[in-house]
Amino acid sequence: MAHWLMKSEPDVYGIDHLEREGTTLWDGIRNYQARNYMRTMAIGDRAFFYHSNAKPPGIIGLMQVVTTGLVDPSQFDPASKYFDRASKPEAPRWDCVRLGFLERFDALLSLEQLRQEFSADDLPVVRQGNRLSILPVSEASAQRLLALLKPA
DNA sequence: GCCAACGTTGGC
DNA sequence: GCCAACGTTGGC
User: Fold this and answer.
1) Which residues contact A11 (CB under 8 A, 6 or more apart)?
2) Which pTM does this prediction carry?
3) Chain C bases closer than 7 A to any CB of the protein
4) What whole-number distance in Å separates Cα of residue A64 and Cα of residue A99?
5) Is the pLDDT of residue A89 over 90?
C-alpha cells in the first residue's frame, strides 16, 4: 500500500465536501506528471488530503483509493473548465481515480510545520514553488506524518 | 531541437 | 497583488 499527497483548494473542494459525500471522483487533473502518478495508484492506497490556497495551507485529512483507471468525464464536457478539445473519446487523454473519506484530523498540519519537520527530499510538497498537485509520499514520511497528525 | 513567450499553481 | 517555479505552445 502506497501513500500519496493530493492537493485541493478547500474553497473549491475541501475535506468538508468529501466527508459529506463519502467518495469523490478526483477529476480535473491536467498535468501529465500528476496523471502518471494517478495511473500507478492501486486500490487501498492512502492519500493525505492537502488544502492548498488555504489560510494556512496544510494536511487536514486522509483518503483511500476506491477505484482506479477511470476516464475523466470533464475532458469531454464543453461546459467544464477542464474541457480539452484535443482529447477524443476513442483515445482519452486524462483519467482519474475515485477516493473515499477515511478521516479528518483534529488539527491541520500546516505547511510551516511540515517545513520544520521535513526536508524537500523527504516530502517534496515543502519545496518552494512546488506546483504538482499529486505527489508520492515515502513509507517513512507517511509514518512520520501519521505520528504527527495522530499523537498517541 | 531550441528557445522565447505565455499560462498556471500556489505561497506569501 | 506579487513572484517563484515550471509546464506548454509555437515559430524557426
Assistant:
1) A53, A54
2) 0.95
3) 4-8
4) 6
5) no
